[in-house]
């Protein structure tokens, strides 16, 4: 029997199916679940990425306007969705503004308010004058309603006009009036300027309408406009309270603006209480001045009486034009002693035989003054200011807080007094106190970076793509990659000898000696292999060393035992 010869190392390159078959049950299950999840994540990400983001086109629409808009969107081939409850109509985010412009060009939404477009269909035959007036009034009310609804604080509005019939008698004509009911948005209100603007808008749109004839109410029935003179209502009291609050906030802001640059933004607090006088007063006075100088006097009336002696038939005096002139104004004082009037020719009344009397009435100087006191005058101001302790840092970096000195407090008090216009005679008071603030700092009124609406919208737009990518990467690295790593491990080379091959062929189970041979030839631990790998090794041995295989077959035929 020939000696046993060493066989060359056999390298095995199994296929993917063979590698997959070499995995255990847990690895196969993990790989299958990972592949399924990865495919599902990819499909969901693709669908959600292609799905359009929906935005609100219009909200809080009337049923009539909502139906008209939906019909128009169907005609325009614009996809839409109706929110739960029918409160809003949603369209894709990239088509919101374009759709609004297209609908606005067609007059949608109308807001259930019809303006002067009623006049377009009013020119029908047989319309009476009353119908024409009523159509015009409805159109004017609709236009005013649209104008009022354009305000940002107003959600809805309704205008009622009372336009009386005018006749040819001026004394019997009646002035028009109007009533406006407004519905406010949540958390919004109308200030005095906006109320005055609404009243002026309505009164200026109707001829001969007095602004006092316009009443403005809110949706709760509260009168917002100022009541007529002589009437007192809750609306006036609310306006007065709002005005007092505005004055107090103005003074508080002035104090903060002057002290914050000195002590720091979070180191000062100020509160101002203003006492205002809203009483209306009116006074009338007549003043009489004493007698004025002769050049400033005014003659009201003058009467001259002249009588002559009947027994004297001859005229007296110097003939000529001077005699026929009327006497000039007297030069005697107004309140002086009575004097005998002098004739025009300078002679006495006795000498001329006649008598003359002159009566002059002067205007009396009188001044009538009517004074009306203004409302909202400041009667008294009280200011309370609290300053925090000042912070000092030593050379070692240690921070300490120390109270302000009396000189510093005096300077701060002087600044506050000058800021509010301190008046001692009016009874104003200013108190500046120094105290240590607590460590809790007030939060900034501005929103944090992560609470900005723009950043939130951007995060929502990237939520699905980024989330899908991260989840897919987690499944890939956690389930699929470990299984692929096991499958990619190289199969160790197998070393066979002639005797080992003979034993493998002569044995009843040839797979086991062939499987054990690599572990005996190498120091590596044995790994479980499939039966097809052992069969492949036997075939490779037959191709590489046919002489050895022929000797083995010859031994089997002769019935010899292996050496």
From TrEMBL:
InterPro entries referenced in this protein's UniProt entry, alphabetically: AMP-bd_C_sf, Flag_M-ring_C, FlgMring_FliF, FliF_N_dom, YscJ/FliF
GO biological process terms, semicolon-separated: bacterial-type flagellum-dependent cell motility
Entries under Pfam families matching the protein: YscJ_FliF, YscJ_FliF_C
Residues annotated as domain Flagellar M-ring C-terminal: 259-437
Annotated Flagellar M-ring N-terminal domain residues: 51-225
Protein name, per record: Flagellar M-ring protein
Stretches that traverse the bilayer: 29-48, 462-480
Chief localisation class: other
Cellular component terms (Gene Ontology): bacterial-type flagellum basal body, MS ring; plasma membrane
Places the protein is found: Bacterial flagellum basal body; Cell membrane
Membrane-topology descriptor: Multi-pass membrane protein
Sample GO molecular function, one term: cytoskeletal motor activity
UniProt family annotation: Belongs to the FliF family.
Keywords: Bacterial flagellum, Cell membrane, Cell projection, Cilium, Flagellum, Membrane, Transmembrane, Transmembrane helix
Organism lineage string: Bacteria, Pseudomonadati, Pseudomonadota, Betaproteobacteria, Burkholderiales
Free-text function comment from the UniProt entry: The M ring may be actively involved in energy transduction.
Species this chain originates from: Rhodoferax ferrireducens
Domain of life: Bacteria
